[in-house]
Model the fold of this input.
Amino acid sequence: MQQIKTWEEYKSAYLLSTAEPEKFWAAVADNFEWQKKWDSVLQWNFTEPSVKWFEGAVSNITQNCLDRHTETSPDAISIIWEPNNPNEASQKISYRELLHSVNQFCNALSKIGVRKGDRVCIYLPMIPEAAIAMLACARMGAVHSVVFAGFSSASVADRINDSGCSFIITADAFYRGEKKVELKKIVDEALTQAPTIKHCVVFNHRSEQITMQPQRDVWWHEITKNCSNNFLPEPMNAEDPLFILYTSGSTGKPKGLLHTTAGYMVYTAFTFLNVFNYQNGEVFFCTADVGWVTGHSYLLYGALLNGATTVMFEGIPTYPDHGRFWDIVDKHQVNILYTAPTAIRSLETYGIKIFENKKLTSLRVLGSVGEPINEEAWHWYHTHVGKNKCDIVDTWWQTETGGILISPIATVTPLKPAFATLPLPGVQPVLVDESGNEIQGNNVAGNLCIKFPWPGMARTVYGNHERFRQTYFSTYSNLYFTGDGCRRDDDGYYRITGRVDDVINVSGHRIGTGEVENAIDEHPLVIESAVVGYPHDVKGQALYAFVICTEKISDVEKLVAEVREVVAQKIGSFAKPDKIQVVPGLPKTRSGKIMRRILRKVAERDTSNLGDTTTLLDPAVVDAILAGSK
Ligand code: WTA
Done:
């Protein structure tokens, strides 16, 4: 695939991609192996909405991830696995070995009844088997639905039920730092509420004592025993589903975004190659978990499509000490590091002694993703990690977009700290005002929308196309609405300012306030709650919950601990609010709507001007909240 290497090339690629998008993407798509080429490049409308890329084409993404590279360079390393415990051995898996493992697992899954179109839930730690399981599903045409291994049993069950998964793949247990996570136990609990599951495949990762339910549960190593290394990739139509990935929105339960085959393949490969300026033979280290979209699109698919070596790290940046990322970079000679601002900010607090005896000379490109990166963190990353010689690509995108939309192209785009800079070829961003008018010109701010389809975009919310339309295509006519606010500066550079809806970005995890409220309301003593975000030095944002209780609470600390526990059980520990305040009432309008604006101000400790409170049903409630604020 042609790589954009100069500013001039970027500009001409961008021009072509907007003037003749079909020609542009057809040329990119020509670089893949197709079992049959497309009849039409693009058919679309944003009203239904309906978006179809490469209709008529037949391919399998794993043929392009695995077989292709196995033919040309079978011994090249596909995955380097770095365990949680640095004293245990890391693994290097060649492309040929990965292909064989995937094929074996395809045969094993076939044996237990997995068929094309079946939904398969994957609930695994960051181990090579997570990649093998995802690729095996893709190869046989089953739709994977990966659930981050930090979610609770209730969340696992909800996701299984929403997409009707008939299989789940998990492990006995794993360690995240020093903390043991007993995955199989969580799955056992989830499966009491998830009747569609026929089989649970268990990978023996830590030889922990677990109970296997006869008939339902099967060991990974037993079902793969004697399975052949060969498995023909299923011919997949361009718009056949590839995977479902759940993400939080401002209302209701999480949405299962559906991504399809050909467009996603073309888009993740193209953006990986260009944004990171990937060079043959380089080692790419993405610290995101495969349970999130970054893990899907760049740790796995984008990297493998380009024949890259991708590092998969099981642990956390602070274990066994705060130098772990740098040790991994030096040990595996990482060239491209892709991480989140929250990790950068948390390491920043330990001072530069965490770089003692670390070389970091292999690094060439640094990436940032998941939330806005503040200037200070940007400079720290640039100076101490990149030694002032690595470009930082601040990549803006979403689970819904499948791949990066706005980002510098490493070595090409002139950088500006805290700016995602410019749209990639094929991406047409617009800023709109509240009434949906496009805001022209520079030095302006508005809501970020995209006005033309790109190949990697999600096609629907699984099982609920109306919700897809409503959420993304109904706010402004003929535009995809991102939910983010954005500024465009005098140079036409984009700076994402954060969500404009009720989605809170805590340490790069997307959390819907409604979900947390629903969880808190399950506590028997809670009548109602309201959750808002407030700025947090390390996490970016943190959650502040206001709760109304049924009776006067004598032991507030106990209640707070219980409320946090309910959230951990209903969603996962990462969604626990940092602050919980018991309040006598919530600021509501006469029509019963909670005025979150006021709660946000309280949470932000910015109470000098609370704005107009006269429309409140009971303005006195605000004083009571202020008096008890944390
Ligand atoms: C935010 C993660 C600023 C944004 C890939 C978006 C960012 C949400 C950036 C999507 C960035 C992501 N700068 N904000 N570079 N990247 N975001 O679905 O609010 O987990 O809407 O996808 O993260 O989060 P998601």
